[in-house]
Amino acid sequence: TELSPPKNYAKRHQKQLDKLTEVEIIKAELEEKQFKTKLTVIDTPGFGDYVNNRDSWAPIVDFIDDQHEAYMRQEQQPERKEKIDLRVHACLYFIRPTGHTLKPLDIEIMKRLGTRVNLIPVIAKADTLTQNDLYTFKQRIRQVIQAQGIRIYQPPIEADDEVSAEHARVLSEAMPFSIIGSTEDVNTPDGRTVKGREYLWGVAEVENENHCDFRKLRSLLIRTYMLDLISTTEELHYENYRQAQMETRKFGEQKPRKFENPKFKEEEEALRKRFTEQVKAEEARFRQWEQHLIAERDRLNKDLEMAHSAIKALEAELDNLQVGYGRGTGRR
Fold first, then answer.
1. Which whole-number Å values give the CA distances from 208 to 164, 215, 244, in the listed order?
2. 294 exposure class (CB count in 10 Å sphere: 0-12, 13-18, 19+)
C-alpha cells in the first residue's frame, strides 16, 4: 500500500537551499478483514541531507513533545471524554546502508528520540548489501546502541507463554530490521508473482525472510505489538513528559515556546558574527585614529615647548640688551 505520492526531486533540490527539516503528516485508514485502523504517518524529508546538520533534529523532537503537550492540555480540561490522541506511538528510524556503523548524527538523534518515543531502528535498502555485510553491519549497530545507551523498543517477553516469548526474542534479535521496499509486482524464477525488486542476479522479495525483515517489522507494528506500542507510549513516554512538565511548571501554565528554529538560529549567529566583526573593525579604526591624535598632540606640544623656549630665550636676550643699554646711558 502506497500512502504518499512519488518523490518530487525538484522540490527536494529546493529544500537543499532552504536547509530546514520539515515535518509532513499523512493520514490513512487501513482495513483488513473488516478491522479498521486509522494510521497517521509523520515523514521528515530533509533530515540529514546537509553538510551542516546541527540542530536538524529540533523540528522532529519538538513535534513529538508538542503532541504530548497537546494531550496533557486536554487532560487538564473539565470535559475530557473526547480527547484527540495525536501522540507518536512508534518511530521508524531509517539507517543508511553504508555497511560501516552509525554516524554521529544518527547517535545524537536516536538518543533524543529514544527517551520520547518507541524507537525502532531500520536499515533501509537492505538489498544493496550482501548477507555477510548486512550481518556485520547489524552487529556494529547493536554494539553502538548498547555502548551509547540508546533506548530502543523491546517487545515484552511473557514468561507464561513460551510461544509469544520466543516470538518476542526473535524480533529483538533481528533489530535493527533490514528492509526492502517495493510496491511493484515481479516474477520469480519459479513462476511466482511477488512484491520486490528485480536485478540481473535475481529477485529481492519484500516478504521473504531470507531476503529482509519486512514480515518481522509488520508483525511488530500491526499484528502482535500494536497495543503494546500504544500502552508503552501512554505509561512510559507520556508519563515521563507529564512528570517533567509538572515539576517545572505551574498548573495551567503555558509551555514556554522555544524560538530555536535551526534556520533562524543559523541566520542569527551569522548576523552576530558579522556585527562582531564590524565592531572590531570600528574599534581598530578608532584606536588608529586615537594614536594619530596622540601623535599629533605630542608634536604640537613639542612645537609649543620649542616656541616657549624660543620666547624665553628672546626675553632673556631682551633683558640683557636693556641692562646693557641702561649702563651705557649712565656713563654719559
1. 21, 8, 44
2. exposed
Q: Which residues contact 94 (CB under 8 A, 6 or more apart)?
A: 122, 123, 124, 179
CA 149, 154, 160, 166 torsion-angle sign: negative
Amino acid residing at 66:
D
DSSP output for 279-312: HHHHHHHHHHHHHHHHHHHHHHHHHHHHHHHHHH
Return the residue matching grid coordinates 624660543.
Answer: 310
Helix (H, G, I), strand (E, B) or coil at 92: strand
Beta strands in 162-279 (DSSP E): 177-178, 185-187, 193-199, 202-205
Half-sphere exposure of 272 (CA within 13 A, CB side): 6
Q: Model confidence over 265-292: pLDDT tens digits?
A: 667 777 888 888 888 888 888 889 989 9
Alpha carbons 40 and 80: distance in angstroms, whole number: 22
Q: What is the DSSP letter of 126?
A: G
Q: Are strands 185-187 and 177-178 parallel, antiparallel or unpaired?
A: unpaired
pLDDT above 70 coverage of the chain, percent: 84
d(C-alpha 175, C-alpha 285), whole Å = 62
State how far Cα 313 lies from the chain centre. 81
Residue where the block lists cell 552576530 = 272
